[in-house]
Amino acid sequence: MTLKAVLFDFNGVIIDDETIHQELIDEILILENLRPLDSEYNQFCLGRSDRHCLTNILNKRGRIVIDDYLDKLIETKAKLYKNKIVNLEKLPIYHDVIDSLPSLKQDNLLIGIVSGALRSEIELILETSQISPYFQVIISGDEIKTSKPNPEGYLLAVERLNLAYPTVNIKPENCLVIEDSFAGIQAAKNAGMQVVGLAHTYPVHMLQRQANWAVDYLNELEWQRIKSVFAGECYTTN
C-alpha cells in the first residue's frame, strides 16, 4: 500500500470562514423569524452541508420545508457568501495548508477537495487565492446526496480520480484525508481512509481521540512518517 492522494476538507481546513458561514446561517434563520442558537449550529452545521444544516435546524423548530424552498434558502446564502468574500480586504486562508500544496504536487500525489460547501463557493476561493491548479478533483455539497459523516463524498472522489487517472489505480486505503471536524473525520474513516485531524476548529487533544494523526498546523506533520505508515513500515498508535 502506498500514499497516492491527499484529500482536503474545505471550510475550516483551507479557509477560515466558519464564522462567516455561521453569520449567514443566522441571517437566514432570522429571515425565517427564528432565533439562531450556537448549539444548533455546532450540532447540525459544523463539517456538514448547508442542506443538511438548514434541514435539521428547521425540522427541529417544527418547520417542514420542501426541496424547492430549501433550494431558494441555499441560493440566498450562496449570494450572501459571495458578496461577503469579494468585499474582504484579505482572504482568511490557512497558510499552513496552502504552503503544503507545492511539495505534495512535487511528490506526484493527486490532490482533491471533499466538502459540504457549494462548488461555486469553493471555486471562488480557489480562483481568488490562485491555487486552483493544485487540485485534480473537487467534490462539493451540491453534487452529493448525503452529508458527512456519510462517506459518499470521499468515495466519489476516489471514483473521479480513477476515471481521470486510471493507471494510478487509487483505492480508499491509498488516500490521506485532512479534516477539522468530527463529522469529517468519521466520514473519511467510514470510507476506509486514514485521517489527519487539523486543530483549526477543535483542540488537538480532542482530535487525537478521533483521527490517526492530529496536529495544530499542517506544517507540523511528519510526511515521511505518514508515507512509512502507508508503506507498512510503521504503525500509528491511535
A few lines on this structure:
This protein has helices at 18-31, 38-44, 50-60, 67-86, 95-98, 101-106, 119-128, 152-164, 182-190, 204-207, 223-230; strands at 5-8, 110-114, 137-139, 175-179, 194-198, 213-215. With 238 residues, it is an alpha/beta fold.
Structure description:
The protein has 238 residues and is α/β, with parallel strands linked by helices. It folds into two domains: 5-16 and 92-230, HAD superfamily/HAD-like (Rossmann fold, 3-Layer(aba) Sandwich), CATH 3.40.50.1000; 18-86, DNA polymerase, domain 1, CATH 1.10.150. 45% of the residues lie in helices and 11% in strands. It contains eleven helices and six strands. The protein has helices at 18-31, 38-44, 50-60, 67-86, 95-98, 101-106, 119-128, 152-164, 182-190, 204-207, 223-230, and strands spanning 5-8, 110-114, 137-139, 175-179, 194-198, 213-215. It has a six-stranded parallel beta sheet. Strand 4 (175-179), helix 9 and strand 5 (194-198) form a beta-alpha-beta unit. Helix 3 (50-60) packs across helix 4 (67-86). The radius of gyration is 18 Å and the shape is globular. The chain starts with a strand and ends in an 8-residue tail after the last helix. The model has no long low-confidence stretch (mean pLDDT 93).
List keywords for this structure.
238 residues; alpha/beta; Rossmann fold; DNA polymerase, domain 1; 11 helices
Classification by helices and strands: alpha/beta
Count of extended strands: 6
CATH class of the largest domain: Alpha Beta
User: What's the order of the H and E elements?
Assistant: EHHHHHHEHEHEHEHEH
Named at the architecture level, the CATH assignment of the largest domain is 3-Layer(aba) Sandwich
Which geometry do the CA atoms define?
globular
Number of domains: 2
- Share in β-strands: 5-15%
**Termini Cα gap:** 19 Å
Low-confidence stretches: none
Task: Examine the coordinates and then state which fold CATH places here, giving the name of the CATH topology of the largest domain.
Answer: Rossmann fold
